[in-house]
Write a structure and sequence with these properties.
The complex is a heterodimer. By secondary structure, chain A is α+β, with helices and mostly antiparallel strands. In chain A, α2 packs antiparallel against α7, α7 (about 245-290) runs antiparallel to α15 and α7 runs parallel beside α22 (about 710-750). Chain A is elongated, with a radius of gyration of 33 Å. By secondary structure, chain B is an alpha/beta fold. Chain B has helices spanning about 60-70, 90-100, 120-130, 135-145, 160-170, 190-205, 220, 245-255, and strands spanning about 20-30, 35-45, 50-55, 75-80, 85, 105, 180, 210-215, 225-230, 235-240. In chain B, α5 (about 160-170) packs parallel to α6. Chain B is globular, with a radius of gyration of 18 Å. Chain B starts with 17 loop residues before the first strand and ends with a helix.
Chain lengths: ~850, ~260
């Protein structure tokens, strides 16, 4: 039996290779995901471990939760002395860590990808993880050093005289005295890291008399834990101490948590899609070949093979293919990991990566997934093979007996579809947590794909007629034959098209959803913001509060709003955004969509304990006008507010809106994230904009000054970048489904060899033969495209309905969908190249005498 | 043969006016010890309007000869002309064009396309060539093969005899210079075989069709105007019309 399996595979090398591709790519994505995330985790482990290798304990501000706007809140510098006074502490030193960007000439040096721009104060050599590579580390006021990879990337020279630092008090010229590495690494995930003296850091970044961390080393014979305990005893409330190891682990875990909590499952989801498509193709390929081998199965049954042995021979073949494909996929995973890293890099999410390591977990997962998916996909066809009776060996044109439950399949497929749709609705409407909701939606989507895939054969005929009509009109008989070929085995065409449908469905879905997202965001800007300019940084991180003064003193500015929106916790309500406004000009600059009898008059009544809340918060927390609720910040500050009124704006002003003064009372850092500027009536808009831009470039070069239209355009550009990333990840599934079309065509051509011989004999040219195959491929691909786009529209519509509260609308990007259809045609043409060549190469004589 | 004809290059007799003409055709498969001479220098002419049957035991080369005469296979040496055109030097595309114009086929296994109707199948040679169908001729053909009420049926809805009649009509639709029939009754029972042979005969008598038919069935050969016998790659006997009994005698004598 083993030999039979081996010979079967060897005899059909091309098919085996084409079939394997379906699994290789999916497995490669699984393996690549694990390899990549291990690389990233290892890189961060390395960074933080070496960073803390010379210290024993770290004191920092206790936080309720992590805050993007306020990542390292300060403490009084006196803590340094408190710690130094602890018995057993050898050295205690404070550090300021903050955000700020390097300016070279007129250019702001930005980090790669989403990495932060870090400014950190230098510490004593005994505890310093940074090591000078060229020049030295900063010692005197006005001196800075930059991390090696930024110096390399930006071609910075030590001693260069046009270097400055964008600080909270404006741009300050600095002297570049050296480059350095941090621990063992020359890059921290693409972040720009600038070392300055402690004094400069405090003076320039609003940290006078403050530090953000205190590092301590222990006297000989005192353990890290012991030291941490001793320090803990003297710390004032609101501060915490960690051992160096704990601190390194915590920092690394923060990042690892984000990776394993988001990146890993997201990439695995794409791998899952690829495997799902692969499973369709394996199923289809085996269905076709089992049907073609009916006589062979009948023959081995006459020779005494049991049904079990027939089953074994088919499943065994799948097992061998699964193992080979998984091993190849595992190796290809290394390439995929590299590819994904480059992809993220290309769209600006550079990630640090240590050397490649293939862990046992990766190997086990890749092999298991590849083999299980392959074998599971062939169970159906294998069962049908067992139903071939021995008599089939001697029957001319014996066909596969129908499966025992085949007459129930349409009902089953319909049921699966209905359950899938129900899950989609349930996932959106049931108010599940994000993870559960995504899982329910994912399962619903899989079932919808399976259901439609199972029912597709009933609409292949009308679809093919519709799609084939223009081809038949243009190409005549070759088109007619192609359409007839595409519909002669509707189950086969349906399964082939369904594989493509999955990829196209998801691509269409994200495209449509993104279009809705763009529309809802730009719509909200048009509706709510009455200003003429929008100010923000390219990383969306806060910019110096002093920038507001510069704007307000510009002639032609009628009013401005500098918004902070830190994350806070509310009771009731949970995690929310706290939007801060200036009540004096809010009515001019904003147009709130007031609910009930709320109005602009409320702005003046806000004071420091009044709040306006967005309807989603009002609904979910059960808050109404007059109710009181509590807000807690990341630094642990707390205050109560009274609800003065409700507005609806689920896009720009989600959560709570209070005055800037109220936020100040909560010790929320004053740096705004967004500025909105309203011009005087009759002011020369271009001139005012130019003036503000010039002033920002001079003092606060990280601030981007954009008109509303430019801002919207940039947002759309960012969405498009994200879309490009999703397209690239889904492209693997699409490529797999192309191989599925190639495979099905090659098998069909093999089956139709005699027909092709007849066609050639009666006067069909090679070119016509190729055209017949190409048109069939196009029809199949477009069926997949049409079904996919239909499902994509359905998914996007369901999701848009479910997220209506979040302000997400449903917009059909018709142009994009038409492009997808055209691409489906191109895909069909590409998939047909090899099969068409094979068909045209058949000699009429050989083909006629083919058994 | 009154029209002036240029002398052929080899100085042999002029071959104009013939539907098919072969000169010194050889076909060798393999080489060295493994070589097989399927045809060892066959020269034969088929005048227009003749119904010829080619007979011979298995391995005699009769199928090879037909394939070469029909331009489906190339000879190792020798010359083949169809309706005055030398075909052995033609490229694939030119050969295809020639088959469209001049050659019709009827196969043992019918070889109809299962997804097309009977009518679409019989029109296929014309539609694939992008040529206009003469509706009168099609009507006459459909009537002659008795498929008036089966035009919209698919092959799976037709009996074997009906399918072969569709195939015959398909072979004749382009009014080819020659119709090659490869064991046309090989897959039919005796009653439908008779019917098929009557139709072949009629197409010769009424439409002046030239037919070259390969068969091992003596009764089939008995409906032809001429019966050729091949053995070991050579034509060993060439008769006019023979009755079935006489054919069996020749077959027996050749064994």
């Amino acid at each position: 039996m083993l030999r039979l399996i081996a010979r079967g595979i060897l005899a059909r090398k091309l098919r085996t290779a084409l079939t394997s591709v379906a699994i290789v790519l999916g497995v490669a994505m699984v393996a690549g995901t694990f390899i990549l995330t291990d690389q990233i985790n290892n890189a961060f482990d390395d960074i933080f471990e070496t960073g803390n290798s010379k210290i024993d304990a770290v004191v920092s501000r206790q936080t309720e939760f992590d805050s993007f706007e306020d990542p390292s809140p300060p403490m009084p510098e006196s803590v340094v002395d408190d710690v130094a006074g602890v018995d057993g502490v050898a050295l205690s030193e404070g550090q300021v860590s903050t955000q700020g960007q390097l300016v070279v000439g007129d250019d702001v040096i930005s980090s790669q990808g989403g990495a932060p721009a870090i400014v950190v104060s230098n510490v004593s050599p005994e505890i310093n993880p940074s090591v000078a590579l060229e020049g030295r580390l900063p010692e005197n006021p006005g001196e800075v050093a930059v991390i090696k990879d930024v110096a390399d990337r930006e071609d910075l020279q030590v001693g260069q005289d046009d270097v400055a630092l964008a600080t909270a008090v404006g741009t300050r010229p600095v002297e570049l005295v050296g480059t350095f590495r941090y621990g063992d690494v020359e890059s921290i995930g693409g972040a720009t890291v600038v070392l300055v003296t402690l004094g400069d850091a405090q003076r320039w970044f609003d940290r006078e008399g403050q530090v953000t961390n205190v590092f301590a080393t222990a006297d000989a014979g005192i353990s890290e834990n012991d030291l941490a305990n001793r320090i803990r005893a003297v710390l004032p409330a609101g501060l915490e101490v960690e051992t160096a190891a704990e601190n390194a682990q915590a920092q690394s875990d923060d990042i690892a948590g984000e990776i394993s909590g988001f990146l890993t499952p997201a990439l695995l989801a794409f791998a899952g899609v690829a495997l799902f498509v692969g499973a369709f193709i394996i199923f289809n390929t085996f269905s076709i070949t089992v049907a073609q081998r009916v006589r062979e199965f009948g023959m081995i049954r006459t020779l005494g093979a049991t049904r079990g042995q027939v089953m074994t021979s088919v499943v065994g073949e799948a097992l061998v293919i699964g193992v080979i494909a998984s091993v190849v996929g595992l190796l290809a995973g290394v390439g995929i990991a590299w590819g994904i890293l480059r992809l993220f890099d290309a769209i600006g999410f550079g990630l640090p990566a240590a050397g490649i390591e293939v862990r046992p977990r990766t190997i086990v997962a890749a092999l298991l997934v590849g083999v299980v998916v392959t074998v599971a996909a062939v169970v159906g066809p294998a069962l049908r093979a067992t139903r071939v009776p021995p008599i089939a060996a001697v029957q001319e044109g014996a066909t596969l007996p129908p499966g025992r439950f085949s007459r129930f399949t349409p009902y089953l497929a319909g049921l699966v579809l209905v359950v899938g749709l129900a899950l989609l609705v349930y996932g959106l409407a049931a108010g599940l947590g994000a993870t559960e909701a995504l899982q329910v939606l994912g399962l619903g989507a899989v079932l919808v794909f399976l259901g439609v895939g199972g029912l597709a054969r009933f609409i292949v005929r009308p679809l093919a007629r519709f799609i084939g009509a223009p081809i038949e009109a243009l190409a005549g008989t070759t088109g007619h034959l192609a359409r007839a070929n595409a519909t002669r085995n509707t189950a086969r065409t349906a399964a082939t098209a369904a594989a493509l449908m999955i990829g196209v469905g998801l691509v269409a879905f994200v495209a449509i959803f993104a279009a809705g997202l763009k529309d809802s965001f730009t719509g909200a800007i048009d509706r709510t913001l009455q200003g003429d300019l929008i100010l923000q940084t390219d990383t969306f991180s806060p910019f110096p509060a002093a920038a507001s003064g510069v704007v307000d003193s510009t002639e032609g500015v009628a009013a401005s709003q500098f918004l902070r929106f830190p994350e806070v916790r509310t009771e009731p309500g949970g995690s929310q955004f706290l939007n801060t406004i200036d009540p004096t000009t809010a009515a001019q600059v904003f147009d709130f969509d007031w609910q009930d009898d709320a109005s602009d008059a409320l702005f003046a009544q806000l004071g420091t304990d009044g709040a306006l809340i967005e309807t989603n918060l009002a609904d979910s927390a059960g808050l109404a006008t007059g109710d009181r609720f509590t807000v807690t910040t990341n630094r642990g500050e707390s205050a109560s507010f009274t609800v003065l009124g409700e507005y609806r704006d689920p896009v720009l002003f989600t959560g709570i809106t209070v005055t800037g003064a109220a936020a100040d009372g909560l010790d929320i850092p004053g740096d705004p994230s967004v500025g909105v500027v309203l011009f005087d009536e009759g002011a020369d808009g271009d001139a005012v904009k130019q003036e503000i831009t010039d002033r920002m470039d001079a003092d606060f070069p990280t601030v981007q000054v954009q008109s509303n239209a430019e801002f919207k355009e940039e947002f759309e550009g960012q969405i498009d970048q994200l879309l490009a990333l999703l397209y690239a990840l889904l492209a693997i599934s699409l490529i797999i489904s192309l191989f599925g079309i190639v495979n099905a065509l090659v098998l069909s051509i093999y089956e139709r060899t005699r027909e092709i011989g007849m066609l050639r004999a009666i006067g069909t040219t090679r070119r016509q033969m190729r055209a017949i195959v190409r048109y069939e491929s196009i029809i199949t691909a477009v069926i997949g495209g049409v079904l996919g786009i239909g499902i994509g529209i359905l998914f996007a519509w369901v999701l848009a309905r479910g997220l209506e509260d979040q302000g997400i609308g449903f917009t059909l990007p018709v142009g994009t969908l038409v492009v997808f259809l055209v691409l489906a045609i191109v895909a069909g043409v590409l998939a047909a190249v090899l099969p068409a060549r094979r068909a045209a190469k058949l000699k009429p004589l050989d083909a006629l005498h083919f058994e | 043969m009154t029209s002036p004809t240029p002398p052929s290059p080899d100085g042999a007799a002029p071959r104009d006016g013939l539907a098919v003409s072969a000169r010194d055709v050889t076909k060798r498969y393999g080489s060295g010890d493994a070589k097989v001479d399927a045809l060892r220098g066959v020269s034969v002419d088929f005048p227009r309007g003749q119904f010829a049957a080619v007979m011979g035991p298995s391995g005699s080369g009769k199928s090879t000869l037909m394939n070469i005469l029909a331009g489906l296979d190339t000879p190792t040496s020798g010359s083949v002309m169809i309706d005055g055109t030398e075909i052995t030097t033609l490229k694939d595309r030119q050969l295809t064009m020639l088959r469209r114009e001049k050659v019709g086929f009827v196969f043992q296994f019918f070889n109809l396309l299962p997804m097309l109707t009977a009518e679409e199948n019989l029109e296929l040679p014309m539609s694939i060539a992008g040529r206009k169908i003469d509706p009168e001729w099609e009507k006459e053909l459909v009537g002659a093969v008795g498929l008036d009420d089966r035009r919209r049926h698919r092959p799976s809805e037709l009996s074997g005899g009906q399918q072969q009649r569709v195939a015959l009509a398909r072979g004749l639709i382009s009014r080819p210079a020659v119709l090659f029939a490869d064991e046309p009754t090989g897959n039919l029972d005796s009653a439908t075989s008779e019917e098929m042979l009557r139709l072949l005969r009629r197409s010769v008598d009424e439409f002046g069709q030239t037919i070259v038919m390969v068969t091992h069935d003596g009764r089939a050969a008995a409906s032809a105007d001429r019966v050729l016998f091949l053995r070991d790659g050579e034509i060993v006997e060439d008769h006019g019309h023979l009755e079935a009994d006489a054919i069996y005698d020749v077959v027996k004598s050749l064994e």
